[in-house]
Inverse folding.
């Protein structure tokens, strides 16, 4: 592979496709082992460059910036603001524009052979002509996070939104003014459409005291609750989970106030436990 990279003759696009429903239907594009090695090698070299561009409150694909950190940061802003605006991109990975992405990558990287390799990887997959990146590849995660990083800088530097958290394409803005968030939403939608060729699903705007949906939880200023759809997914997964997977699932739901609910699930009165935890 090293010689192929030097000669720019490395092949990409050897994908295996399968569909998952977690919670909604997604087509996963899994690269061959050889290509996964390539993607990891690229990110080992490029990670620092991508990382330097990210704002502090961007989460996903970053060390120490997982779901737990994103939830904690969103609560931090919820305690300090009265209103929230919750937005997410419509079919995000399927909507990423190849030409826009390559233009953005060219702003960040100046090595011509690397950019040609990026272009080869990007063009190896599409959902419609010139759009879409694969769900399942490490490079796709970094490309997708960087693509919206441009929007992050617009929100923080141009719109001056102090309270803002993004986890991939799920984003929440906070303010003490409902009208301010209405204006912010209009600016975000316009920028995303004009500069990134993206559209948003229906947004949510309400008081932070009522809580807001984010990463499978309903986030309140001082507590987390599981969304009903998250509870249903947990029950489906836990029945067939291995001991290691069970531990991970429990760690996830234990972030929320679920003690009574978990007791009902695992130790229902007059019945055997649903899952053995010993």
């Amino acid at each position: 592979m090293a010689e192929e990279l030097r000669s720019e003759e490395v092949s990409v696009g050897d994908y295996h496709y399968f569909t998952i429903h977690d919670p909604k239907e997604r087509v996963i594009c899994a690269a061959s082992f050889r290509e996964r090695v390539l993607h990891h090698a690229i990110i080992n070299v490029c990670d620092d460059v991508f990382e330097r561009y990210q704002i502090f409150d961007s989460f996903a694909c970053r060390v120490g910036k997982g779901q737990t950190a994103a939830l904690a940061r969103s609560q931090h802003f919820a305690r300090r603001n009265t209103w929230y605006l919750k937005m997410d991109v419509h079919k995000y990975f399927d909507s990423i524009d190849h030409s826009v992405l390559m233009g953005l990558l060219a702003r960040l990287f100046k090595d011509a052979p690397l950019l040609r390799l990026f272009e080869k990887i990007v063009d190896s997959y599409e959902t419609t002509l010139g759009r879409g990146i694969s769900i399942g590849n490490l490079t796709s995660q970094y490309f997708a996070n960087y693509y919206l990083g441009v929007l992050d800088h617009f929100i923080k530097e141009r719109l001056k939104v102090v309270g803002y958290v993004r986890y991939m394409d799920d984003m929440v803005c906070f303010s003490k003014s409902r009208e301010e968030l209405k204006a912010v939403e209009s600016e975000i939608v316009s920028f995303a459409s004009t500069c990134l060729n993206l559209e948003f699903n229906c947004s949510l705007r309400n008081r932070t005291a009522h809580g807001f949906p984010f990463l499978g939880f309903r986030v309140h200023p001082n507590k987390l609750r599981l969304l009903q759809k998250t509870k249903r997914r947990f029950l489906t997964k836990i029945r067939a989970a291995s001991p290691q997977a069970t531990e991970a699932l429990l760690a996830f739901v234990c972030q929320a106030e679920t003690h009574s609910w978990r007791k009902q699930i695992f130790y229902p009165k007059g019945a055997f436990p649903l899952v053995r935890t010993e």
